[in-house]
Design goal:
mainly alpha; 13 helices; elongated
Length: about 375
């Protein structure tokens, strides 16, 4: 028992903490290097760096703000100007003495407070519901990336190559897996395949003609992949267990498609959205009447600013509740699909060399023996 205790005590004496040196400090770094490292950490936490990791685009801070706020401002700017004009009219009517009866009303402040509380709660609920739909869509597309990687890796490793054309068929089937993701993106965005050429390099000309005529492109590609896997099993290029694994991966792709279609075809209830808009209109009508007695001629700009805040929250929620569109606040599906295609092409190009790298140590060890 004494020897282990001596070893532990000796280790504690020689540890950096016992000598008063912090574990996070690194010897040999001057203050300039420490400042540069801290600055890099701050830059990594900036929203333009997060936007770059999210979409793959390198933009400055102002460009990111303009990109994200462009569609929102374009949608709400007419309403903000209308609210500001209404507030200016209320200021003018108050100056001319037409609102004396409204100013003397004791119920108006209570109505404004009640509307403010109800509207805040409804906006919070709307934002949470929209973000939940957005996050569920992001998780589904994250599962899509992982399933595509597993599927193409399994096809490459498990399907045997016996004839000269087997390698070409295998590579074509792996590109079809990437084509499934691209077709799913076009399907969720309701973009016609005839006006988009992303799928053309991922399949044969005959398949590209057929996919343009199909009513459901992703399911058609899933059928082609299923047929290829079954054909390989019938030709004894894969065994029964490998067939089951590949079937499961293809079923996972279809399940992810179904989850995204559930989000797409089940919007937030329209009655709830209409109620929220009616409350917003009532609030924007009552707020200037409440503020005119204290702000006078500043009611117009104040009403415009208040409407800008509430309408921005409402519009951002409206955008992200349908996360598969083309809006800047939607999911970066183009970037995700480019990542999938790049991963598949990297596997096709580098997989033969990686196999030789695995076999090389075995061959060298046999030569040594």
């Amino acid at each position: 028992m004494t020897k282990p205790m001596n070893i532990i005590s000796r280790f504690r004496k020689q540890s950096p903490n016992s000598r008063g040196v912090s574990l996070t400090e690194r010897p040999g770094r001057n203050p300039a290097q420490k400042r540069n490292s801290r600055q890099k950490l701050v830059e990594l936490r900036s929203f333009q760096e997060k936007f770059s990791r999210y979409t793959g685009e390198k933009l400055s801070g102002l460009q990111v703000l303009f990109r994200l706020g462009e569609t929102v401002l374009h949608a709400i700017l007419p309403w903000v100007l209308m609210c500001g004009t209404y507030g200016a009219v209320i200021s003018l009517l108050s100056h001319l003495g037409f609102l004396s009866a409204v100013k003397e009303s004791k119920a108006l402040p209570h109505v404004a407070v009640a509307l403010n509380i109800a509207l805040s709660l409804l906006l919070v609920f709307r934002t949470n519901a929209a973000h939940e739909r957005f996050w569920e869509g992001r998780k589904l597309w994250g599962s899509m990336v992982n399933t595509v990687r597993n599927c193409v890796r399994s096809i490459w490793v498990t399907v045997e190559e016996r004839l000269p054309g087997d390698r070409t068929q295998k590579e074509d089937s792996m590109r079809l897996v990437a084509a499934f993701a691209v077709a799913m993106k076009l399907h969720l965005r309701r973009d016609p395949i005839t006006l988009n050429d992303e799928l053309e390099p991922l399949m044969s000309p005959l398949q590209y003609c057929r996919i343009q005529e199909a009513s459901h492109g992703p399911l058609e590609i899933a059928f082609w992949l299923e047929d290829y896997v079954q054909h390989q099993y019938e030709n004894r290029h894969i065994n029964g267990f490998q067939l089951q694994d590949l079937h499961k991966l293809l079923n996972d792709l279809v399940d992810i498609l179904g989850g995204c279609e559930r989000i797409l075809k089940t919007p937030v209830p329209i009655g709830y959205t209409m109620t929220l808009k009616l409350l917003l209109v009532a609030y924007f009508i009552i707020v200037p009447l409440e503020l005119v007695d204290s702000l006078h001629w500043w009611v117009g700009p104040s009403t415009a600013f208040i409407s800008l805040i509430f309408l921005s929250i409402h519009e951002v929620s409206s955008e992200i509740e349908e996360p598969f569109g083309h809006d800047p606040n939607d999911l970066p599906l183009d970037f995700i699909c480019e990542t999938i295609k790049r991963n598949v092409e990297d596997l096709i190009q580098h997989a033969p060399s990686s196999r030789r790298m695995v076999e090389w140590p075995r061959a060298s060890s046999s030569m040594v023996n």
